Amino acid sequence: MIAEQLPILQIIIPLLSAPLCVVLRQRQLVWAIEVAVCWVSLACAIGLLVQTMDHGPIVYDVGGWPAPLGIVYQVDPLAALVLVIVTSVASVVMPYAPRVLEAEVAKEKHYLFYAALLLCMTGLLGMTITGDIFNVFVFLEISSLSSYALISMGPQRKALMASYRYLVMGTIGSTFLLIGIGLAYMMTGTLNMVDLAERLQGVESSRTIRTAFAFLTVGISIKMAIFPLHVWLPDAYAYAPSVVTSFLASTATKVSCYLLLRVIFTVFGVTFAFDAMRLDTVLMPLSLAAIFVASTVAIYQTNVKRLLAYSSIAQIGYLVLGLSFASVTGLTACMVHMFNHALMKGTLFLVMGCIALRLGSVELSDMKGLGRRMPIVMGMFVIGGMNLIGIPLTSGFISKWFLIKAAMEKDLWIVALATLVSSLLAFVYILRVVEVAYFQEPDAETLLKDESIAKTPLSMLVPTAVMAVATIVFGVYPTLPVTVAQQAAEMLLWGGG
To answer: Most buried among 98, 328, 402, 414, using CB within 10 Å?
Structure first.
């Protein structure tokens, strides 16, 4: 039955479609294939989510070789949720892509762009679904190498430097991850995550295992852009093509967060990570520092894409904060915010792509009066901004509510208060954009740039509107992500994942 093959189809379909794009080369045909692949992948992800919620985790033996001898794909509610996030974002972004690529990427590179994006999606899906920790490294390299290429295709020369900086930091992160995997394998003789978790029980107090845990945590933290390991992210988001920024901002750091959850809770276990290694004493201060420092830096940015990039670093701080509580409510907050952050940053960066296409700039000084000239697009920016702040009836409010609830369960009233206060910083930098767009008059030369500035293509408006509406829908009806997140949190804490 096809339902039994969904785990392998989730990987094989985009992986084989990437070289097909290179062979065909014709832009419109390659784009049509890309859209079809993304939607089929989304259908597979939804199918896996339904199966895991109804019947429990799925284990798929690749090639018929059972674990620990062979590689297995394992899907539980958490993995299925991340699969849905990645494929749904890709499915929304792909119809949006052609008009933006015409303006930002040379036409002769379009087929390479689509191939690289499919490889990036394959890597992210593979990291999510595999039950083999070395396989995680392989898929991480697939997604990373394709990401470097995608970022370098940005319209400005600074995109090359941003890609190079990401390459250097990404290589360091991958090296740390590989060293950690090697040390763990040296002590246990296995790479299967479930088998590794069992064999660690007798050697977890050794210096080698503690070192392996440190290397794995730091390596993943670099990929996740946890403060202060975030230096690659602002330039990568600011200078990459708008399609790439929208996709990576919504997916890449979420998959890294998922991977960190797997390593901490599934492989090493909550007792080792939080009692023996005291991970919470490191992650909680760093998360609060990320929230306040990155939000403060965002206030002073003049490039709106860069402003949103620093905002992403702050939002990653919220993810880490939820993880650091090591409680069902805290992990639920972390996972729900993974979902909600994909919506809010997808909306905001898609809006930036619309503005960049029509205005030729995302500088704040060039956006004067834009609220009156592009009312629909700026209206969607306001919705995304409200979601980012965490205003009630948006999905971002649900995340903040669970974070505050988790802090109060631990009697950490200062942390709960800090979470509330941090929303004011988000309000300030979103208000800066709103104030310029709605309450300042455009310069004379800006008015003369393009009389058709309000005519945003429908192919870009519709995907952006889908994201914006979803932020409201999941704010009013948050049952789906909250139910999946709570079930996944209980499995991670009490069932070992």
So the answer is: 402
